[in-house]
Write a structure and sequence with these properties.
Radius of gyration: 17 Å
Helix content: 40-55%
CATH architecture: 3-Layer(aba) Sandwich
Number of domains: 1
Number of strands: 6
CATH superfamily: Glycerol-3-phosphate (1)-acyltransferase
Oligomer: single chain
Largest sheet: 6 strands, mixed
Strand content: 5-15%
Order of helices and strands: HHEEHEHHEHEHEHH
Structural class: alpha/beta
Shape: globular
Length: about 230
């Protein structure tokens, strides 16, 4: 199927069968990560029960999507690159709530597809660092999500994962079991706040919010806080 064909199918992903499929695999994924790691989750009450939500998560490992949404009943839409939609794993990815995107040339049509999902009152999860961390810390947040939030009026929820980097860093082929993993959801931020501060100032502030949230989580997990600049 062509890229544009997949984009058109995004609108058809809200059906009953897909939701049942999602719930089955949500149950399985929670079981997997709980079996492998001692997971603690904080701030679930910060995810709005309805309406458009843009969850912006730190990115530590390939397990992150399972850790992001496994604890919540509301499905998350993810935005994988279009080249992943091939073969068996492509079918598996496409069977969940996904919005394919061409990362080499992000088009307005791709952005509109994400905005459309948000305007229909769903949750979209993005990793605004752009790639998995190299050292466990949160890298500089990129500003591309601001347009999505402003156009859709979606609430922005910061989210941080800690502990899984040590078990499955990007330099390691397979994950190691054991250890403790923490997940925390921050308080929602209205999309209008971007216009109030201006995009550049908002990105600076959001970087600090994510870094503070990370150290709050590390303290809850009885770990030494990271030294972040200006925080």
């Amino acid at each position: 199927m062509t890229f544009m064909g997949r984009m058109a199918e995004v609108k058809n992903k809200d059906g009953f069968c897909r939701r049942v499929w999602y719930e089955i695999w949500r149950f399985i994924s929670v079981g997997i990560v709980r079996l492998l790691y001692r997971v603690r989750v904080y701030g679930k009450e910060n995810i709005p029960r309805d309406g458009a939500v843009l969850v912006l998560s730190s990115h530590q490992s390939f397990f992150d999507p399972m850790l992001c949404q496994g604890w919540l009943r509301r499905p998350f839409y993810y935005v994988p690159r279009e080249t992943l939609f091939v073969g068996f794993w492509g079918w598996a990815i496409d069977s969940f709530y996904t919005i394919p995107i061409n990362q080499e040339q992000v088009s307005l049509k791709s952005m509109r597809s994400i905005i459309d999902v948000l305007k229909r009152g769903h949750i979209v999860c993005l990793y605004p660092e752009g790639s998995r961390t190299l050292d466990g810390k949160i890298d500089e947040i990129k500003p591309g999500f601001c347009l999505l939030a402003r156009r859709s009026k979606a609430a922005i929820v910061p989210m941080v994962i800690d502990g899984i980097f040590e078990r499955w860093p990007r330099t390691q082929k397979y994950p190691k079991p054991g250890g403790r993993v923490g997940v925390i959801y921050g308080k929602p931020i209205p999309a209008d706040y971007i216009d109030q501060l201006g995009e550049e100032a908002f990105i600076t502030k959001f970087n600090r919010i994510m870094q503070t949230l990370h150290n709050d989580l590390r303290q809850k997990m009885e770990r030494k806080p990271f030294k972040y600049p200006n925080n």
